[in-house]
Design goal:
Layout: E1 2-19, E2 22-36, E3 39-45, H1 55-70, H2 75-81, H3 86-102, H4 107-111, E4 119-120, E5 123-125, H5 130-142, E6 147-151, H6 157-167, E7 172-176, H7 186-195, E8 198-202, E9 222-224, H8 231-234, E10 243-246, H9 248-251, H10 254-266, E11 270-273, H11 280-290, E12 295-296, E13 312-315, E14 318-321
Parallel strand pairs: 5-6, 6-7, 7-8, 8-9, 9-10, 10-11, 11-12
Antiparallel strand pairs: 1-2, 2-3, 4-14, 13-14
Bound molecules: magnesium ion.
Keywords: Isomerase, Magnesium, Metal-binding
Protein name: Dipeptide epimerase
EC number: 5.1.1.-
Length: about 325
Amino acid sequence: MRTLKRYSRSWLLDRPFVIARSRSTEIEVVRVELHQDGMVGVGESKPTSRYGHSIESILAEIDDITAEIEGGLDRQQLLEALPAGPARNALDCALWSLECALEGTTPTARLGPVPGSAIVTAHTISIATPEEMADATRRELAGGARLLKIKLDDDRVIERMQAVRAAAPEARLIIDANEAWPASQLEAWCHALAELGVEMIEQPLPAGEDAALATFAHPVPICADESCHTRDDIEALGDRYDMVNIKLDKSGGLTEALAMAALAAECDMAIMVGCMLGTSMAMRAALPVAAYASIVDLDGPIWLAEDDEPALDYSDGTVRETT
Ligand SMILES: [Mg+2]
């Protein structure tokens, strides 16, 4: 007999998280618990209004399929039963977690990376004034970060990045514009950022308006985030992007995320594993994708004021599963 519980929880951030389209000081997530034979599987997801999701819509999607999940629906059947998105993610991760617990193992022990191994993760710098971004950069470096993901919009792009680079002459820098750039600036900004040693640019143009990416030689690799949710998106992106950012809340779980990683590799695209804000429970569920990723960006929990049952350790710019 399998039983499903679902609930939402709010978490305060310890500092505002500012990106091109939003500013957050608190987040709300949905958690799913699946209980069976004395074991429990857990999953967590977070809605993104950009994709039309809310806490209410996630809970409603879960409620609609609870009887089938409790009746034994498996992960492959779930792929057909629900569309990609955070509701399917919470359920898929809970199913992985339960399946492994019943076998006396864990998803990472089964899928990789080697449990306990330290993986370099990006640490995010929010949008602020150039001086504030330089200060935040120095704080992250002092805390051990070595790969920084700089959030940008379409304002003071080069000025902000010059300030960050001056504060971090040696650090690896990637940037995320969250769809905020006009195509008219793309080439000039990409070349200037290449000169600043930026090693990757994430989603510069709006999804659906990214055709301009196909018509110029990329001076730095460009990664699809908002343009890439599931396997269905990947092949069409090959002439525009060099890399895809796989996130469980977009793919609708680890099962689809692993299939995306395999398809991206077939299409000669590099892989980044990313996250929405969330607890370490949600990030741990994405760790198996890190085994295939050249960039890991799973710093969501370090934005929280507290993380009730830390499943991951963050130190010296890396993330590792607690043992
Ligand atoms: Mg992004």
